[in-house]
Amino acid sequence: MLPTIKTQTLSYFYMKNILLIGATGQIGSELTLELRKRYGNDHVVVTSRNPAKLDGALAAGPTEKLEICEGERINEVVKKYKIDTIYNLAALLSAVAESKPQLAWEIGANGVFNVLEVAREHNCAVFFPSSIGAFGPSTPHKNTPQDTIQRPNTMYGVTKVSAELLSDYYYKRFGVDTRGVRYPGIISNMTLPGGGTTDYAVEIYYAAVKEGKFVAPLGKGTFLDMMYMPDAIDAAIDIMEADPSKLKHRNCFNISAMSFDPEMIYAAIKKHKPDFRMMYEVDPMKQAIADSWPDNMDDSAAREEWGWNPVWNLEKMTEDMLKVISERHKKGEL
Length: 334
Ligand SMILES: NC(=O)c1ccc[n+]([C@@H]2O[C@H](COP(=O)([O-])OP(=O)(O)OC[C@H]3O[C@@H](n4cnc5c(N)ncnc54)[C@H](O)[C@@H]3O)[C@@H](O)[C@H]2O)c1
Prior knowledge:
The protein is of the alpha/beta class. The protein has helices spanning 7-10, 26-39, 71-80, 94-99, 101-122, 155-174, 200-210, 229-241, 262-270, 284-292, 300-306, 314-330, and strands at 18-21, 44-48, 63-65, 85-88, 125-131, 178-183, 185-187, 213-216, 224-228, 253-254, 258-260, 277-280. It folds into two domains: 18-184 and 229-254, NAD(P)-binding Rossmann-like Domain (Rossmann fold), CATH 3.40.50; 187-224 and 257-295 and 312-330, UDP-galactose 4-epimerase, domain 1 (Alpha-Beta Complex). Bound molecules: nicotinamide-adenine-dinucleotide. Nicotinamide-adenine-dinucleotide binds at residues 21-28, 49, 67-69, 89-91, 93, 107, 129, 131, 183, 185-186, 193-194, 196, 198.
């Protein structure tokens, strides 16, 4: 049984009991901290396949062992904590999913189905992050519309489109309060990314601080949407707090904060580190995936329907990333 929330610190938000699946990943580890700050440690249940390994802030509230492929287990945890909101972040990211397509489907499609079924039974709201990977080669690549052709040719994309459709179906058919965004590449400095096509835009900052040089796996002119983690966290919370009467799309809102190619991020870093050097060694699989994705998405539906308005651009993010990673490096954390 969860304790009563302290209203003097948290009165601004509706009292939620939140379950996080995929809490230890790049996004989940930071989302957990912010959700616990806003709603109280005891109202945010962190799950992991190996909870004994959780420490620090992730262990500062309830934790449970959970595997997304086991629907009955999700049911048990939701009942135990009277969960009303589920953040489902479990997935194999794009490059990893190509090496394990069957498992990627189990987690990214069947796992989503398990979560939606439990949400239907217990009347939970569900946040699900889709991706720029939900688009494919036949999608218009410039200013990609909110509603457009989606014929991805990666297993990651196939699971994301399936999950978007399932989420829409559960809302329309059963009234489950499903909501979500299509994240671009997320850049952060706390937890390393889990094997996606945009990981290079994180790795380049670590390389700039630690080695002074970087080998880019994507070619010059490969433009992709990106976002700094604080904006990604705000998006996940803001969409779940949004007035439902204003949402026409509900699931899979395009959101972006910036679009750049390797040359642009290199130039932004060089302003702070003039001796930094970047070479190219294109990874054919990652390049093919990147080429099938949008250069930049139109996120006007998110701006109109729930006030999406990112704060961080490439210059501000670069300054902050280099500052934080340099501090961590000096402390011997990296
Ligand atoms: N990071 C990005 O750039 C990005 C961009 C677009 C969309 N997304 C989406 O956001 C979500 C989170 O991404 P991330 O970058 O934090 O991923 P990540 O790879 O860093 O973390 C994934 C999490 O899922 C968990 N997980 C994996 N298999 C599981 C299973 N069978 N059962 C339970 N948990 C399992 C992992 O332990 C981990 O905590 C994913 O759905 C991803 O597709 C991420």
